[in-house]
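Student:
Attend to each token:
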Amino acid sequence: MLDETLLPLSLYHKAKQLVWDPRDIDLSQDVRDWQRMGERERDIILRLSGQFMGGEVAVTHDLAPLLIAIRRQGGLLEEEMFLTTQLFEESKHVEWFDRWHSAMGAPAAAAPSAPYRQLFAVELPAALSRLLRDDSPHAQVEALATYHIIIEGVLAETGYYGYARALRDHGLMPATVRGVELVQRDEARHIAYGLYALDRLLRHEPALWDVLMNRLNALLPLALEVVNETFAPYGDDVPFGLDPSEFIAYAGEQFDHRLGALERGRQRHLQQHP
């Protein structure tokens, strides 16, 4: 029987209840707003959307090995069920950003920065594909840290904040804002699962904390570089009055929030099993 008390099954049920279809979002007002924007404003939104599109394609490509690794553990059917919804949602996010680019008649984004390529074309696929040959707790911790903490919990969250500050705060492109909010709602469940799975692994093998910290410390600077490179082309005059330092601080806060949740779980376990 399924264990209804487990968080992954709760997240699975929420995924069923909160299904949305990118095709239902009317972008007509957004097209008008887009056409009225200046070139520099369009450029930074296109840069942001291009990063999201590339990231969503990458995670859609790379997530399946985690599901396979969880399956090999046995007895984790509730987690497998949740991960099927995550795979579906990542594909839907690709559809959303592809539809957005098509509706705006937006050209291909500028070539991604070196930190972006390192994170999405090297670190992510390496960590996830490794699970096909090595599904050890060590490898799972590194994969979850890469995907759920750094890419979703830091970079994606900072990107959502960028859309809010640039568009929502200026009353622009309401359907784009709504679509991104729906993507963020999905990703919140993914992050919650990642924290749950990491906590489970760390409770069984407390020594994996060092593996986690080594991976996070290696990748956080890359993520912050991606944020910096997003604003670099605009010098001291970033469109929409955005302040790069605000976004670096926000990314750091997101990292601290995720790590703090894991640290609290670790401390509870250590108190219960001194």
